[in-house]
Amino acid sequence: MRASHLLDSVGHTPMFRLRRASEATGCDIFGKAEFMNPGGSVKDRIARFIIEQAERRGDLKPGMSILEVTSGNTGIALSLVGAAKGYPVTIVLPKTVSRERRQMIQSLGARLELLDSLLHIQDAVRQTRERAARDRSLFLPDQFANPDNVLCHETTTGPEILQQMDGDVDAFVMGVGTGGSVMGVCRAFRNAGHGARIFAVEPDESAVMSGDPPGCHGIQGLADGFIPDLMKPGEVDGILRIRTEDAKAMAARLGTEEGLLVGISSGANVLGAMEAAWRLGKGKTIVTLLCDRGERYLSLAGG
């Protein structure tokens, strides 16, 4: 591939069959390698898409700055896109995220504002909306409520999966952060007349979609303590709860057993895919996303 611009390399990520998970379930479980995006995560997709849509509409113009609340990967992705396009970026994120995530954001030239807790994200979202309303030089991607987030996955990730799998997908499984990925892929499948089951994954310790109160968990990128505006639980076929320690263990296994150094949410997604496989029965084909690279979590494991 030869690209004229870094951002042209976003998307069109490869699909890998996960041998151990497939053998354990009697199904074919595939992971789409979103960690191979230039910023190392699936969030590169929405960062590019939301920014370019805003530019086309005139909502984001030269001289303006980008301000966003995130638990990590969207901050990295927006910092990358901002640097590539010449926009100053300020990222608001919990101080509990991994040291590597913070360092990557700063290395891409963005400014950090730290929150005391993941559970404060909803308040921070409200405050940044107020800041953007007062200061017209700020552009707020507003990933938790911006329909361009869903549209991005509806027009890119979902169609890519159907093309790569030749339509042979019995279920799609995805962890919920903003809800953009799972809802976008769900709508892409429905628009194509595809009947694949759609399963959403959330941390067992903060299972808000299941009706539990928000709580602290360690699956960075999932469950920021509320159900985002974009997430419509009634449109998916099931909610799967995954414990943090199990997600961490599976992420480690993907490294040692498959050679895939991926993050904790990828471990949760693969466990969710295995649970979906057991529910649906042998011989089915399940697709999930491998959301990001594992290097940004090494400090959490004492590395």
Secondary structure layout:
Elements: E1 15-17, H1 19-25, E2 28-33, H2 43-57, E3 65-69, H3 73-85, E4 89-94, H4 99-107, E5 111-115, H5 121-134, E6 138-139, H6 147-155, H7 157-164, E7 171-175, H8 180-191, E8 197-203, E9 238-242, H9 244-258, H10 264-280, E10 285-290
Parallel strand pairs: 2-10, 3-4, 3-6, 4-5, 7-8, 7-10, 8-9
Antiparallel strand pairs: 1-2
Describe this structure in words.
The chain is α/β, with parallel strands linked by helices and 303 residues long. The chain folds into two domains: 6-41 and 147-300, Rossmann fold (3-Layer(aba) Sandwich); 42-139, 3-Layer(aba) Sandwich (Rossmann fold). Helix content is 39%, strand content 17%. The protein contains ten helices and ten strands. The chain has helices spanning 19-25, 43-57, 73-85, 99-107, 121-134, 147-155, 157-164, 180-191, 244-258, 264-280; strands at residues 15-17, 28-33, 65-69, 89-94, 111-115, 138-139, 171-175, 197-203, 238-242, 285-290. The two termini are 34 Å apart. The mean pLDDT is 94.
Briefly summarize what is shown.
With 303 residues, the chain is an alpha/beta fold. It is built from ten helices and ten strands.
